[in-house]
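INFO worker-7 received task bundle
INFO bundle size: 2
INFO processing item 0
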Amino acid sequence: MKKLIRNSIFLLSFLFILGACDDREFIELAEDANTTVSVSTSSVVLTEEIAADEILTVSWSQPNYGYSAAPSYKLLIDLEGGDFTEAQIVTAGTDLSKVFTAQELNSKMLSLGLTPNEVTAIDFKVQITLSDAQIMYSEPVTVSVTPYSSLLDLSSAWGLVGSATPGSWGNEFILDIPFYQTTTPGVYVSYATLKDGEIKIRKDNDWTLNYGDTGMDGLLDEGGDNIPVTAGSYKVTFNENDLSWRIEPFTWGLVGDATPNGWDGPDFKLNYNPYQDNWKTVVTLADGEFKFRFNNDWGLNYGDSGLDGSMEVGGDNIPITAGNYLVTFDLNTLEYTLEQIDVWGLVGSATPNGWDGPDTKFIPDFGINEGLYYINGITLGDGEIKIRQNDAWGADFGDTGNDGTLEAGGDNIPVTAGTYNIVFDSVAQTIAMYAWPE
């Protein structure tokens, strides 16, 4: 009993000390509370041939805090001499090192804006978080990196047009939904979210050469009849060789108690990334688990038995801690990655979740347009919107003057009800909104 009383007194005293620290907003650290960062090599050359190889290890020492601490670590990456305000971030948790494969490091380098096949000096430093009030940083260490281009050119001249598409029968602001090349010459695929209406296939966003399907027999006719469709997400395949075509329901998504809609769905949709032939999304996840599945159905789903980043059909649920993530899902290699990032979102009385959020997340440009973010097909009501980061008001943009140029903390942006494609340029600080035709 005496032992229980002593333990209770100690706990209350400890909580009192923590409360005092919160009031002062700092924790007194030992004089030698610092960390040293080291790298396995000072120069790396990245190529596709070694993409899966471990190419660089960044390690750091655990500081002497002067008391028992539970730190968490993040590795920050910036150009040499940069201020790390636009750093690439790798969450390391409680680990004291990070091992990069060539592909993973290359992705970070391209996200920093490095030019492929050119040597660039990069700084790494470690962020140590003890509490919201106590964050420490190491001194940077420099590595010379030569990245490679990971972008594919799967573009084609073909596209989907029609009343079922965002651009309707032709729109100077919204181009036709694109078709992409497949591994079979002359066969193209498009991943399209359509509404009730009609479609045709045409070349170069122009009516000079267009195809419909007179008789709806699965064979295209030049200048043929419009093709009726119902609302949904589809994979449309077009064979230029024999003019055959087909349309089938098609989505990949995230499901689980960590996702916005739980285990019952609808799943949080992934977006096709033609520059790397994989699937990506930006999502806010809660503490919990998730899996990848096809067409909102358990007939085909992927998990990760062993948590090694490699997926198995029907594999184990994937545990995750709460945060904002860039999720990459690669059906070619059956691998996935989860990258904790800062995210931009749309908030306001006109948005689905109002001013309290969670915000509708922008998807970053996965290609060569640095700083561009997109939301396609969002339904807004009459009201106002703003853009903010990480579902919080620490960084937000409005449009004072309603001229398309954004200002930090600027005025709310009025909108009228409709369905929109929205482009946010975080570099130029502009917004462009394109309404879908009725």
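INFO item 0 finished
INFO processing item 1
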Amino acid sequence: MIRVLIADDQELIRQSLSFVLDAQPDIQMVGAAANGREAIEMVRSQKPDVVLMDVRMPEVDGVECTRLIKAAHPQIKVIILTTFDDDDYVFGALRYGASGYLLKGVSVADLASAVREVMRGGSIITPGVASKAIEMFGRMARGSMQVSVDEKQTADLQENEWKIIREVGCGLSNKEIAAALCLSEGTVRNYISSILSKLALRDRTQLAIWSVQTGTATQPFGGRP
């Protein structure tokens, strides 16, 4: 059973999402916080597996809340709930370890799938805002947040691994990468784990930034830059 906590300052959203997710056979809602401070307290007491996090909340916003939760409980997955004008918030949340973001108003099926995907180690970016994610990674790559990888660490990367690095840099989910490369999602997850180990990177977000920095994300064939 996947334990989920929602943090949102709008009561209607808290109630509606709690209701639809609690109806899923493999998901259990363990709390609903009205602000970031409540969310941090509930995380300590309820120990959820996944937190659905609004970015604009009183007392402690979703970015700082994500930072504090991931610092204290790195195993907990955070999915940001956002609107189209929340770019700066999302940028910060991804930087602190969020597993992706969804637009508010996403379908019940997509929301439940997102919860399951992050529990499998994947990342979620709503297709409608994937281009914004690429822009954010580009800003990260051009700014002060650089991801360094020794060239020797890339020597053992296989052709399929270069292709997957390219797709991660383009903001694709594991499911989308699997479809594009005619692989199973499990194989994609295994590849990503292997890539992170070979490059000594912490997570998928660092891999995406590195993919953009090196130009791998712009290669049409998905090979090395």
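INFO item 1 finished
INFO post-check item 1: Residues 43 and 68 are 10 Å apart (CA to CA).
INFO post-check item 1: The chain has two domains: 2-125, 151-218.
INFO worker-7 idle
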